[in-house]
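[job 0412] stage=complex_fold ligand=NAP status=START
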Amino acid sequence: MIDSIDALVVGAGFAGLRALHTLRQSGKRVQVIEASDDVGGVWLQNGYPGARCDVESYDYSYSFSPELEQSWRWSERYATQPEILRYIRHVADRFDLRRDIAFNTRMISARFDEPTSRWLVTAHNDRQWSARHLVLCVGQLSTTKSPNYPGQNDFGGRIIHSGEWPREPVSFAGQRVGIIGTGSSGMQMTPVIAHEAQHVTVFQRTPNYSIPAANAPVSEAEDQQVKANYAERRARARQSPTGLGFIPNRTSALQASAEEREQVYEAAWNRLGFGFALAYYDILLNQAANDTAAEFIRKKIRARVNDPVVREKLTPKGHPFAARRPSVDSGYFEAFNRPNVELADVRESPILEFTPTGVRTAVKHHDLDVIIFATGFDAFTGSLLKPDIIGRHGVTLREKWAAGPITQLGVSVNGFPNLLIVVGPGSPSLLSNVMVSIEEQIDWLATLLNTMDDRGIIEYEADAQAEIDWVRHVNERARETLYLATDSYYNGAEIAGKPRVFMPYSGGIRGYRRLLHQCAESGYAGFTLRPAHAEVAAK
Ligand code: NAP
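[job 0412] stage=complex_fold status=DONE, emitting structure tokens
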């Protein structure tokens, strides 16, 4: 039997739950399907030791319910993965969301049926739904990426990917652990695992910039102060470029004197986390300005590591600060001062093979019991391109995006009517506090669907020209920045053969929101709205 519903939402992470709640509130029959057995999305999968959010807890949370905001008590400035998962589960229960979620149900295909303007969605267990709208909330960092070394299958110990962390506790006591990868995941887990394991070897390819988290317990006074002014805090976040509430310093880093710069950077270093990148407005726009920030961070890293050789290897060079996603760490560099932590520089001495007892590099064999792949994800498009999503004329999203993702406003694709992608390519997504992006896009969708109902419209579709214009705009904004100066998962460099295009929108949350609102106010310029009887409605 095929269930007929208004909207099918794929994924029960932060975005999927928000979509379910919001569309349900506006009277829609909604079904969520989720491949896993619980809510949480990436926060369910990334349970590795030390996992915590790089965005402050009060900002990395839903804003749609003042009662929820007031009742939830965050314990730390940067919440741990278990606390975030508790929050997501609380939201699911509080708003009675689970009853409309089919768990252990993976979408394998979605086909747009042109005569009825509906999506026919099929799951791996053959369940099917016919939905007017398809809402993809599948995550930008949810398809893991693993290396493939010679001998990998012969390794006699355990291999775990950071993004597919087992639910049951993993004990490292007495274990020799190898961590491959030094992005946010590797940097977060290293100091925590080092406390427990007998020995840790960190296999580093590219040293990463990182700012200390300045994490702290949230005091009663701070909690009350935030809650007394929560609406203002949310408004500030929405009006800021990144959705984090930081307003960039309007001065150029190059206009400030060396002493002033030192003071500004020191203050940002001690408290701001990611906000460090906005200590001057041109840090991400101008190489010379960026050099001043990068040099400050390098100096700080050098001061945190005792061994001069290890210190130099850990110091990031050759790419601008924040052009690749920097980390916000809690004791990563200091971990290398411990006698049980070793750095293996695989750029200098590549991994040649896995053996039954460890990993052999060009200089030595590392005896290991556990190997952790903190090697990242097929970012932005990985999970969108796994299922067969088939639009008009039988064209798949994979075919449409063969040369890279193309969207109108980062949410919609020509040839794929009634399909919304949440925090996907072409939107601020991973360059923003994703919570703000998620809520903006879902509220925009809810308004669109209400407008469609009011006007007897059954189909919305991005215009082909609007899509071309938007991608051009995304590229223009990226060219104003330093993001294109290096390889990163922002531009598809993390996977061999992936189209090399810059995927997120770097124009900022504030400007992006304005564009979404203008689109709605104009009656959805850049989209075609079609009524039931196929005549094209006024745009
Ligand atoms: P990532 O940033 O993509 O880092 C992957 C790391 O693995 C890089 O150091 C990469 O080196 C290395 N690597 C990949 N393949 C390798 C190979 N074959 N041999 C050696 N090294 C290899 O992945 P991630 O650390 O999982 O983080 C991904 C993103 O998730 C973050 O940027 C962030 O957006 C998000 N995240 C957020 C939080 C948070 O909010 N707290 C925490 C964790 C992650 P190269 O750089 O040389 O490729």
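Confidence is low (pLDDT under 50) at residues 535-539.
[job 0412] exit 0
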